[in-house]
Design brief:
Layout lengths: L6 H13 L2 H16 L8 H43 L15 H20 L8
Length: 131
């Protein structure tokens, strides 16, 4: 039995799916066009400009939290999947599991080890990761 997701989790996933649609982009684009077309009717006033500035600021502010929530969840899922692949592969290095939770120094050491490994592999006819 899976635990029920919070209201925010369900809302964030729903918003994520809606915002990724062509229709949503088209509506946003049409809103900007409509706003621009109405400029002459409002005399290009400060209030007319404030409407779009306020609207876009509010949407941007709220979307930061929705995007961060979905990004965190997706990243965590990817890390768990990669950790599982490392765990079941006998040739993989177990030390890489949970690397995202280690200090910056530990991550840099792991990166240096792989750069060194890639440079030695390059001499043996194998492609390096940068190729």
């Amino acid at each position: 039995m899976t635990p029920e997701r919070s209201i925010f989790d369900r809302f964030a996933r729903w918003i994520e799916r809606q915002l990724g649609r062509t229709t949503t982009f088209s509506l946003a684009f049409l809103s900007i066009v409509l706003w621009g077309v109405t400029g002459p009717f409002f005399g290009w006033s400060d209030t007319w400009q404030l409407v779009i500035n306020t609207g876009t600021t509010i949407v941007t502010f709220l979307m930061v939290f929705v995007i961060q929530n979905t990004q965190n969840r997706d990243t965590q899922a990817i890390h768990l999947k990669l950790d599982e692949l490392i765990r079941v592969n006998s040739a993989a290095r177990d030390s890489l599991m949970g690397l995202e939770e280690k200090s910056e120094l530990e991550v840099e050491k792991a990166k240096s080890a792989f750069v060194e490994l890639a440079s030695t592999a390059g001499g043996s006819g194998m492609k390096s990761p940068a190729a």
